[in-house]
User: Fold these one by one.
Assistant:
Number 1:
Amino acid sequence: MSYKVFVDGQEGTTGLRIHEYLARRPDIEVLRIDAEKRKDNAERARLLNAADVAFLCLPDAASREAVSLVDNPNTCLIDASTAHRTVPGWTFGMPELAPGQRDAIRASKRIANPGCHASAFILALRPLVDAGLVPADAAVSATSLTGYSGGGKKMIEQYQEGGDVRLDAPRPYALGLAHKHLPEMAAHTGLQQPPVFLPVVANFYKGLAVSVPLHLSQLKPGTDASALRHALAERYAGEAFIRVMPLGGDPATVEEGFFDVQACNDTNRVDIFVFANAHQALLLTRLDNLGKGASGAAVQAMNVHLGVEESLGL
C-alpha cells in the first residue's frame, strides 16, 4: 500500500532530514510544493488535505495556522513544533512513553512530536516516576549538552562560517529558566513541576546528552543505582530503539573516563545510563538530536500511526 506524505516546511533542518528518511521508502509518495508557492496558503491547504500524513516542520505560529487549513478528517498531522505538545486532543508522539501509547498514536490524527532535550529527559525519568522511585513532587534539575544543528539554519551557518572565537567554547543558554521544552518535560514525566534546566550548545554538529543528578536519600527509601537501572530496563525491555546500558557504562561507551555525546549519531537509538556512588546517582541519556530527537521520532510516529513496521526506513 502507498501513502501520500507532505512536509510543510520542507526546507528546514527537520524537514530536510524527514525527506531523507522518506526517500528510502517505496511505500511513500512524497507530495512537494513548488518553491514559489511555499507561502501560498491555498496550495499548502491543497497538499495538506491531499496527504495521508503531513509533517509540520514550522515555527509554532505557522504550525497553528497550518492546522487551521486542514479539513480532511483522514489527514494525520505530525507537528514537529512546540505548539501542541501539551495541548488536549493532541497525542504525544513517543511510542515508548508508557503502555498504551502506541495505541493512542495509531488512533490519533493529531500527533505532537517530542522535543530533543525533552525526549532524553522524559525517557530517563518517566519509568522512575511511574515506579514510585522518584517522587512526583521531586525537585529535579537537568543539563543538556547539544550540537549546534538543533539551533536551525541561522545557528548552523554561524558555526560553520567560523571566525568567532566565542563559538569555540560551550555556550549555556535559556538562562531565563523558561526553555520551550519545559512544559512537556513536566507533563510527560508525571513530575508536578518542571526541572531547573540548563541547555548548553557546543561546537559540534549533532548529538545530545541530558544529565539528571539524583540524591538517593531523596528517592523512595531503599532505592539504589541497581533499582533505578532495573526500573528502566524493565520498562524498555524489547524496545527496538532504546538501550539501557550496564551500570557505570562499559569500555565501549565510556573510554578513559570520558562520555561520547555523539555515539548515537545517524541512528534512531537512545542510550540510557545510570552512574552512581553510595549516595548519588546520575542519569545520562544520549541521542541524535536530528534523529530520535526530531526527524527520526516523527517518522517512527508515522510508522506507528500507519500500522507498518515501526523501524521502517529508520
Number 2:
Amino acid sequence: MSKTYLLPNSTIGIIGGGQLGRMMALAAKAMGFRVVVLDPTVDAPCAQVADEQIVANYTDLAALKELAEKSDVVTYEFENVDNDAIRSIEDIVRVPQGSELLSITQDRILEKAYLESININLAPYAVIVDKDDIVQRISSLGYPAVLKTTQGGYDGKGQYVIHNEEDIDKAAELLRFGTCVLEAWIPFEREISVIVARNAAGQMETFPVAENDHKNNILHTTVVPPTLDSESVHEAETIAVKLAEYLHLEGVLAVEMFVTGSGAIYVNELAPRPHNSGHFSIEACNISQFTQHIRAIAGLPLLEVELLRPAMMVNILGQHVDGVNAVLADHPEWFVHYYGKQEAKIDRKMGHITVLSDNPLVEIEKMRSSQIWI
C-alpha cells in the first residue's frame, strides 16, 4: 500500500522567510524533513535553519515554479502573498493551505462576507471607497470606528482609529491604497485567540484558548489559560472548529476574537498559519503549533493537545533587546527565542520569551516591574 503521508527526507517548501517560517522549519527538521525557503532577503530568519534558500520575490513565477519542483509539499508562513502566484503552482505541487483559503483571509471584505455567510458573529462594518463613504457610514456605526485597508495590514499597519469628525481626513489617507473597511468599535474586555489544526483526513485539534494584550496594535503578552469562564472558552473553541471545518483547513488556523463584558464573542481576524499568540505552545504544550502544522500538511495524524503548565509569553521588540540582553543571566526561568534578525528596529519583532508558571499573571507583573517593556 502506498504511503499517503510524507516520509523523512521529503522536502517541504516554505514561502516566506520570517520567524514563523523559521520555527516551521525547525519543527520540520526535527521530524527529518528537508526545507527549502523562498524569500527575497538573503539570510532571512528561516533561511538560516533551512537546507536551501531561493532568493526571489513572492510574485516571481519562475522562482515559485523552482520551489514547487524541489518540494513535495509547499506551505506559506504569512497571508500577504500573491494568491494568483500560489494558484500557479498548485498543478505542480500540493499546497495544503490552498489558494482559496488564502484569497478569503488576505482580503478583509471577502473574509467578512464569508464569516457572515456561515453566521459567525463579527463587528458591524461598511465597505469604503471614498471619503464621502466614511462620512455617511460612520453616522450609523458610531464613534470610535476603525478604518482598515482590505489587504496587507499587520501589527496595526494599514488601519486608523477614528475618534471624532476631525479624524476623518487623516483616516481617509488610507484610501490611497484602495478600498477600505470601516468597522464599528467593539467595547471588548478581553482579546483572545484560538489556534485550531486540521489534516486532510478531517481530524481536528485545538490549542488552549489564549488571552492576549496588545500595545500599539502589536501583540505584547499572551497568557494561558485565560481568565475566562468555561462557557466562553467552549464557545471560542467551537467557533474555531466550525471555521476549520467549513474552510476545509489543512494546517493550522488562528482565530482572533473579542470578548465583551456581557460575554459576547466577536471574530476579529483569521490567519491561516501559525500565529504569534501560539508561541507559548513550544514549551507549555505537549506539541507546538509548528509541529502540529507540519504534521497536518504532511498528512500525518494530529496529536491531542495538552497544556502541560500555565504560561505567559511576551514579545521582544527592537527597543527591548538591550534590556533583555542585560539581564539574561538573572532569569534562568525565561525561555528566550531570538529570530536571527540582524537589525533591531523599534517595534520590530526580534524574539519572544515564554515563562512557565502556575500564576502567569504574576510573571506579567514581574515583566512590568523590570522596566524593559515600559
Number 3:
Amino acid sequence: MNAFEYRNGELHAEDCALNALAEEYGTPLYVYSRTHFEHQYRRLAAALKDADPLLCYSVKGCSTGAILELFRGMGAGLDVVSGGELFRGLRAGFDAEKIVFAGVGKTVDEIRYAIEQGVGFFTVESEPELERIAHVEGELKKSARVAIRVNPDIDPGTHEYTCTGKGDTKFGVDPATARRLSLRAIEHDALRLVGLHTHLGSPLMSVDPYEKALEVIRPLCRELKERGPHFRRLDLGGGLGIPYRPEEEPFDLDRFAKMANAAVGELGLQLVLEPGRFLSGGAGVLLTRVQYVKPHPSKTFLIGDAAMNDLLRPALYDAWHGVNAVRQTGETVCGDLVGPVCETGDFLARDRELPAAEAGDLLAVMNAGAYGYTMASNYNSRPRPAEVLVEGSSARLIRRRETWDDLVRGEE
C-alpha cells in the first residue's frame, strides 16, 4: 500500500495534508502512517500463518514508544540489541517472553537485566558470550534460553556495511562451531538451547539468500531437534527489503512465505522472524523546508533544514530515497538536496532530478520510516526533529522536538 499520495496537487499522509502538519509541528519533521504499519504487519502475519510465527519487530528500525505500543497491540514480539532497547520494549508493555535479545557485544549488566526480566531467548554470537551468559545465570541461579547464531558465509547482495551473513563479518559463528556450542548448551545444567538463528543482512530484495542459508542450517536443525529437549525454534532473522527506487521490484513475500512455511513444517519447528524495515520503512517520510536555492555551474543545490544528522542513510550507505514536492510540480532541477551540516557528505539526495523548489517550499524524503530517527544525532548541536503519527484524518505528536536546553541537559 501507499499511505502517501497526492490529493488536489498536495501530498497527504493518509487523510492529513503534509503542509498542514509542517505548519503545526515545524520542520524537519518525521510523519508516520499508522495504517501502513498495520497493513505490513498483518500482511506478513497472514502470509506466514502456517508456520505459527513469532514476529519480533526489530526495535532498531523505529523505536519510538507509540510505535512499539502499536506493534504490541497487534501481537508482535520484539527483537532488541541492547539493554536500552529492552528497556524501551518493557516500558511499552511487551511480554518479556516475546523478546529476543541479539547483538555481538552484550555486557554483563545487559545480560543480567535480560535474565532477570525473563527474555524469550538470547541470540548467542560467540563462544565467550555463551560462557558469559552461563556465568551470569549461575550467579542469579536462573536458567537462560539461548539460540546459537549461525553465520552461513553467504553474500546476500546488499551494502557491505549491512551485510551480516558473510564469514568475514563479526556476526555469528560458522556451522561447525555452532554445532559444538549448541551441543554444549544442551549439556549445560542451566542453559536451554531453544533454537538456531541466522541473519544475512538488510535490505534483501531476493529470497535466494534465505534459501541458501536454509540449506546450510537445515541438517543441524534436524540433529539438534533430536538431541535437545527444548529445541523448538528456527529464527531466520530479518532483512526483508522494500523498494526505494521506482524501478525496483517489491520483495517476493509469497515466495518467501512458501519457503519458510515449508521449512518449519518439515522440521517441526516454530518460525521466528525479526522484520524491521519491511514493517516500518514505507510508513514514514521526513519533511524538510527549503532554506536556499544555490545555483552552481554544474548543478543546483537545494539547501533544506533537514540534514545528515536527521537521516543518516544517504551519507552512510549512499542510500537512495525518493524526494517529492509536498505541493506537486512537474518541473525539475538537476542537483543535490543537502542540509546545513558542515560536511560535504551532508546530503539527502545527490546528482538527481529533483522537484524544482524555491526557498520556503516543502519537500518530502520518502521511505524514511526505518533507520531514520533511530540513527539521528545532535551533530553540530542540532536538536533532533519531532515525530507525528497519523491515523486517517487525525495526527498526534509522539515525540516532541528537542530544544537547545535539551542539547546541554546532563552536562556538568
